[in-house]
Design goal:
With 413 residues, the protein is of the alpha/beta class. The protein has eleven helices and six strands. The chain has three domains: 2-237, Up-down Bundle (Alpha-lytic protease prodomain-like); 241-317, Cation efflux protein, cytoplasmic domain (Alpha-Beta Plaits), CATH 3.30.70.1350; 321-413, Alpha-Beta Plaits (2-Layer Sandwich). 62% of the residues lie in helices and 15% in strands.
């Protein structure tokens, strides 16, 4: 179904890197949901009122909120696709996550309303049981039973189509907003299924057990909203980048044989605009213009292939200097005796007649990234170092493993 709709409504639908095409993907899913959710709302609210079943009415209100979410989503896709301006030089794409936050809040509010009504009905159920020794009696007729089941089965079919379309479109353009709508639609399939179970039990037992299923629906809706809220908030706060992005960036850099190593990677997301800073180790004896040309090439390839705005800091490395190699090997041996993981890079020396300064960076665990931890690490290094021809002094720059996204990869070690 997704492929057919894309071919019918979106020209050049395969060019998903184009912002205008991405916007049309979002609008396609949102308008489909807008129309179908309004139809479901009308059908359910009428049936729910006629039958006096609040679980169906609650489910209809859920569809009305979905209708509002689709309208909100349409607004979000239209605004987030705007080009950068003076006030928003990185574009408007983070608005998509703000819209997802709003959708999550609406879902949670709806779930709380359902829970409130379910608890009230549960109190009535318990009071009736105490007074009459049996649950409230249902007056559901056969015609009402068949009609309500038919409407709810149709609703499940439509919601399943929505979920599949949202997830498919969201996966193609990596849209959290569409994925949030897809998860909500899938939860609607589950909640509507519980309503069907409630109707069947009510009809065959002759008792009103609606409150229990309304309670289940409310809990599912609240859990869904919290999950979407958490995912959106994590991105806005600033979460760790996807491991695949880091691996692809490493692979792209190391395919150039001139690259000796890489470290100190930081990444920031502005929606689909990804900005990264990376240190590359290159042979210090190479011509500076050649090295600069290589850096430009890698930055350009990174944007063309990965759509990442990469800025590279070039670190010159002496690869055939005997003194540098000797002291680097001594430090490596000393670090291996640590009982916690550390990684070293950017090693160089400043040598005098009677002493040598060893200058390097260490990526250390977060719990040691404080003044006391730094002193302890330097002391352990001194104690672990073997006897050297010159007195050794350390000039260490301590990196935080939380913000260096290469620290867990072999390429930095």
């Amino acid at each position: 179904m997704t492929s057919l709709l894309l071919k019918l409504f979106i020209k050049d639908y395969k060019n998903i890197k184009d912002e205008n095409v991405r916007k049309k993907y979002g609008l396609l899913g949102s308008f489909f949901g807008l129309i179908t959710n309004f139809v479901l709302f009308l059908a359910k609210i009428v049936i729910g009122i006629l039958l006096g079943l609040f679980s169906i009415i609650a489910d209809s209100i859920n569809n009305l909120s979905d209708f509002g979410n689709n309208a909100l989503s349409i607004f979000g896709f239209k605004v987030s696709s705007k080009r950068p301006d003076k006030e928003h030089p990185y574009g408007h794409q983070r608005l998509e996550y703000i819209i997802s936050l709003l959708i999550a809040c609406i879902i949670i509010a709806l779930g709380c309303i359902m829970l409130y009504q379910a608890i009230n009905d549960l109190v009535i159920f318990i009071n009736t049981m105490v007074e009459t020794s049996h649950p409230p009696v249902s007056t559901l007729s056969y015609v009402e039973y068949v009609t309500s089941l038919s409407i709810m089965a149709f609703a499940i079919f439509i919601k399943a189509l929505q979920s599949r379309l949202y997830y498919s479109l969201g996966k193609k353009i990596d849209s959290l907003q569409l994925k949030a709508l897809g998860r909500d639609a899938l939860n609607d399939v589950i909640s509507t299924s519980t309503v069907i179970i409630s109707i069947i039990i009510t009809y065959f037992t002759g008792y009103e057990v609606d409150c229990f299923f309304t309670l289940v629906v409310g809990i599912l809706v609240v859990i869904s909203g919290i999950s979407i809220l958490k995912a959106s908030a994590n991105i806005l706060i600033g979460e760790k980048p996807d491991g695949e992005i880091v691996k692809n960036l490493i692979k792209l850099c190391l395919k150039h044989k001139e690259v000796l190593g890489l470290h100190d990677l930081t990444i920031h997301n502005y929606g689909r605009n990804i900005f990264a800073v990376l240190h590359l180790e290159l042979d210090a004896k190479k011509d500076i213009m050649e090295s600069h040309s290589l850096v430009d090439t890698i930055e350009r390839e990174c944007y063309d292939q990965l759509h990442i705005h990469l800025t590279i800091h070039m670190d010159p490395i002496l690869i055939d200097d005997p003194d540098t190699n000797y002291y680097k090997n001594e430090v490596v041996l000393a670090l291996r005796q640590f009982d916690f993981a550390v990684q070293m890079h950017d090693f160089r020396i400043l040598s005098a007649k009677d002493y040598v300064n060893l200058i390097f960076d260490l990526v250390i665990p977060d719990e040691y990234n404080n003044e006391e931890g730094h002193k302890m690490i330097i002391e352990k290094l001194h104690n672990n170092m073997r006897q050297t021809p010159k007195s050794v002094h350390f000039a260490i720059n301590f990196d935080d493993s939380l913000t260096d996204f290469l620290s867990e990869y072999q390429e930095e070690k």
